Amino acid sequence: MTSSTAVPVAGTALAADVVVPDDARGVVLFAHGSGSSRHSPRNRQVAAVLQAAGLATVLVDLLTPEEEQVDAGAGELRFNIELLAVRVAGLVDWVTGHEPTAGRPVGLFGASTGAAAALVGAAARPEQVRAVVSRGGRPDLAGEFLRLVRRPTLLIVGARDPTVIELNRKAMRKLAGETRLEIIAGAAHLFEEPGALEEVARLAADWFARFM
Question: Which end of the chain has fewer beta carbons closer than 10 Å to its terminal beta carbon, N or C?
Fold first, then answer.
């Protein structure tokens, strides 16, 4: 099943694309960041691999079109982790109650600042969220909420992104649950190099399959 919908969350409506394979064994909610959207070709490529592995996916814009216009100039909303995390938690509630995905374990896939929002969301919804994957993320922006994340967390960073590697290592020391850092050889922040994004998708699919 494939559908596009507007999800009511925290007093607003967020655009989402939902794909539910037959007999899906879990659902992965994507939290984009830093100006990305549900149309991101990178996240759509990862989502396709997860769907092939029997997981439903929900790609959603954490900002409304109006907020995106404002953020294009100031760039502040994409770093408002509190706002994004409240919306991620609300989306988790929606996913667990939405008929096509209800009753299925939930995983969170966060990119850039969306990774921090995903981790805060996992801390806020410990019963529903089973696992978290971060791609080129800024988990450090989750701050002290990291100590409340007890679900398994996979951090994926490109080898040519040394600053983010160090930020992920610092975040790992605070995460309370099982954590692994995977560094993709030859990859920069956007994983545009040949084979880099395929490796991200493989690692994410394996992680979610293991814990969901």
Answer: N
